[in-house]
Please model this.
Amino acid sequence: MPLSPQSQQAKTSTFSLFNPRALRRAVLACSLLAACAGALAQSFDEEFDDEEKPWQEIALHLPPAPQEQNLSEFYLSPRATMKAYIDTSSVSIGADQVVRYTVVTKTEGGAVNVMYEGMRCATWEKKTYAFGHPDGKWSRSRRDKWQPIQDIGVNRIDGALFRDYFCEGRSIADNENLKSLVNRIKTQTRIDPVRR
Model:
């Protein structure tokens, strides 16, 4: 008995689902969709990755020897027995969130010390990279490890730079604006002028 046109169309549709060519296309389409979904999910996870990346220090480049015209004195304490200066041309803020600078100290007896250092506001630490010599050359520090900031004594160089000029809490002062940071040193504008 011949099938009606509607029955024949239904039978053709049913059999077309099991057509090997159509089945291959469907599997391929599903595979592509799964791959795209996986890539999108990975990208989405990377954008919202809350895990903290390990901190890594950038490569170090020593600055030129400090010149007298670039030295700006900064306040230590009322009873300081030396004067301390920053070579304002050496101040930088690295991609690793380290403020680097050359500090020069001069004692009442005439002794001069030159150090190239870095400060991490986030961890309250500082590092001495190198010592300067009268001939303008640098020698690497043997204690080039990160050390806790010391804010004690009358010659509180680390504490003064950390609390008064470079850091606000655990962040670099002035929203990491280098020009503003250097200007703070040049004008001896402490973050909290009442302190000490």
Observations:
- The longest strand covers residues 82-93.
- The longest helix spans residues 20-47.
